[in-house]
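Field notebook, page 301. I keep forgetting to write these up properly, so this time I am using the form the group agreed on. The chain and the ligand, adenosine-5'-triphosphate, are recorded exactly as supplied. Prediction of the bound pose follows.
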Amino acid sequence: MVSFLKRKKEKEGSHATMQPVSKDMEDAFFQPTRALPAIEFRNVHLAFDDKVILDGISFKVRRGETKIILGRSGSGKSTLIRLVLGLLKPDDGEILVDGEDITYLSEAQMMDVRAKIGMVFQEGALFDSLPVYDNVAYRLHERKVDEELVEEQVKRMLEFVDLEDAIDKMPDELSGGMRRRVGIARALVGNPRIVLFDEPTAGLDPPTARTICELAIKLRDIQDVSSIFVTHEMKNLEYLSSEYAIMEDDGKVIFEEEGERLCIINTEIIMLHEGELIFSGKEEQLRASKDKYIQRFLNGK
Ligand SMILES: Nc1ncnc2c1ncn2[C@@H]1O[C@H](COP(=O)(O)OP(=O)(O)OP(=O)(O)O)[C@@H](O)[C@H]1O
Ligand SMILES: [Mg+2]
C-alpha cells in the first residue's frame, strides 16, 4: 500500500522521492513487521468426520484491516475463528498470526498467541454471576495483574464502549446492546492488536447494531487494530465499508462517510460457500458481482 505516501520534491534534486506523511507512518513504513499480515490462512482444509467445512481456504488480514466474513449459517465462519484461536487444528494447510505459524503450536504455546487476540463471542458470553467490572477484568484477574492497573484498564475500556456508568451493574440489569458492548470492552482489555468479532450485532436493533459497528470502525481507524468481523447483516457491511473514524483536536471521535475526500477504507470482504472462498474484495465489487449465489445472498434470498 502506498496510499499513505506523498511525493516530495527534493530541494537539491529534481527527482521526486516517496516519503511517509507522519512520524507514525514513518515508523510503520520502516518496520519490517508492518508488512506481515496480522492473520494468514494458507490453503486450509478442515472436515468434521466426512463433512468438509473448509476446502482449501487462503486469505490474509492485513495490519489495520477489517476483514468481513460472509456466509450462510453453517458455512464455517465460527469454525474459521476457532482455527485462529487454535481451539481447532486444520487437517491441512497453515495458519499464521503476526507472521508466526501457529498451526502446530501446543496448547501452552497457544496461550501466548491468544493473549494478543481479543475475542467478541457470538452471544456476548458474559458471566452472569459477575458484575460488569469483573467481567471486563476477567483476563487481567486470570493473569493476577495488580488491582490498581486492572481498575485503570477496566475504566478505560468501559469509556471506549461508552458504558462507564455500568461498571457496578450485573449483566441481567443491562440491555442486549449494553451486554454486547461489555463483551467488546472485555475483548479489548490488554490492548490486543487483533480482534475477532463473531456476529457481534446478531439480535440487536439497527441503531444498537450501528453503535457496535462504530466501535469496530474506531478500533480500525484510531487504534490500527486488525480484525475479523463475521456477520450476515448487509447493513454492517455498508457501515464498515463506507464510514471512517477520525479523531478531532479535542480528542472527540467523529464518523464520516467516504466522499469526495480521498479516503481508502480499510475493509475487505470474503464470502464462504461450500468450503470455498467464492468472493474476496471490496463492497462495490461484491455488489457488482454477477454471481447468482452472491446476488441471492445480498438480496436476502
Ligand atoms: N465440533 C464440531 N463437530 C462436528 N461438526 C461441527 C463442529 N463444529 C462445527 N461443526 C459443523 O461445522 C459447520 C460449520 O459450523 P460453524 O459454526 O463454523 O458455522 P457458521 O458459519 O459460524 O454458522 P452460523 O452463521 O450459524 O453461526 C456446521 O455444519 C456445524 O454443524
Ligand atoms: Mg457462527
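OBSERVATIONS:
- The CA atoms of residues 234 and 299 lie 9 Å apart.
- The longest strand covers residues 51-61.
FOLLOW-UP: compare against the apo run.
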